[in-house]
Description:
The complex is a heterodimer.
Chain A: E1 2-7, E2 10-15, H1 22-29, E3 48-51, E4 54-57, E5 70-72, H2 85-92, H3 102-115, H4 121-127, H5 138-156
Chain B: E1 8-11, H1 15-25, E2 29-32, H2 38-43, E3 51-54, E4 64-67, E5 70-74, H3 79-84, H4 86-91, H5 93-100, H6 113-119, H7 125-132, E6 136-141, E7 144-149, H8 150-153, E8 154-156, E9 159-160, E10 167-174, E11 179-187, E12 194-204, E13 210-218, H9 228-234, H10 241-254, H11 265-289
Parallel strand pairs in B: 1-3, 2-3
Antiparallel strand pairs in B: 4-5, 5-10, 6-7, 6-10, 8-9, 11-12, 12-13
Amino acid sequence: MQITLTVNGTEVTAECEPRTLLVHFVRDTLKLTGTHWGCDTSNCGTCVLLMDGEPVKSCTVLAAMAAGREIKTVEGLAQNGTLDPVQQGFMAEHGLQCGFCTPGMMMTARALLDRNPDPDETEIRTAISGQICRCTGYSTIVRSVQWAAKNQEGASA
Amino acid sequence: MQVPAPFDYARAESVEDALSLLQRHGPESRVIAGGHSLLPMMKLRLARPEWLIDINDLFELDYVVEDGSTVRIGALTRHATLLASELVARLFPIVTDAEKVIADPIVRNRGTIGGSLCQADPAEDLSTVCEVLRADVVIRSLDGERVVSMSELHRGPYETAVAQDELLTEVRFPVTPRSGSAYEKVERRVGDWAVAAAGASISLGPDGTIADVAIGLTSVGLDGRTATRAEEILRGNRPSDELFAAAAASAAEDCEPIADQRGPVDYKRHLAAELTKRVLRTATARAQES
């Protein structure tokens, strides 16, 4: 089947099987390998991307279900060569070690800050509670999101 | 790589369209909403439909409205929407309690109340909540609609009264004055199924005694999910810790939990009693405040 959807602001049309999972469509068909593919069972959260602005686990969404919707992946975070404040926060606060969970963590953080620009620590921890950092670097991830919240206006200006 | 077996896909544009598609594609067609139960089952070949009818565009089924003495909730209402609803939190705090511990925040962006009830998983939290609230559900077919109670809806694990060419479209919660409700769950980690969970709803009479009560337990092998004997102990009596302890002990006795990776039988039975006591206390306090 053929599907048309918007990915990082650009409309794309491509072939896929009805059974193709969104994570594989994004990685293998669109060659956007920033979205990682992990547990396959909607537990780990490394495949999180935004669908119509909301974080979803793309291993448990069919590509066909994303037709007509707006997808944002980690590749779409930076604007005109400037990293998103969330990306800057992960650099400034060492929010990653191996980097496997990072794209999912950053997409969830972006969606959280879009909804709630000034989250407290509990709200940040709740937002990422469905995602696993195999390096157990949660404290620095939380600090990275806090950095992004604090520096959002300055960073995007 | 876990991928479902091949199937065909159609996206429904309205409830009528979904029902026509289900009829046209026959017994091996299934509805998909959030997909967070069905797709994992399809990956494992526990389910192998030939057609998926995607109902995610049926925005007409995404609502929470107060309608006289009933709150009507559209089947496509997401867990995240229920959790954020102030109306639901005010009238049915048991739903808000449960939604905080159902799956994880990202899965809650996809999963729906209709999907949860139609999955009929014995370990699923909203099913217990809807039993405790004595909800009714609306089931539609091309011939019309019918309303059935939760106890009629669930016929056993993964089995419901919704026929293959029907669609569950709405859940109805009756609003009871001077009532309170609560849910509590013990889980190994965020996103896991319950080791055990309990829910209760209590309404108080003018004299402060328990006019009516419903108790439900999740994941502990309680027949029909509701602790009818414990409810009998409470009804008509004045709320007290001693009374709650007696009811909780009876509820735990009626459970038949199985030992598995989530814990041994005696631990689960202990949780059944303890969680029942706690939700009775919280539900009563909430009823007294309301």
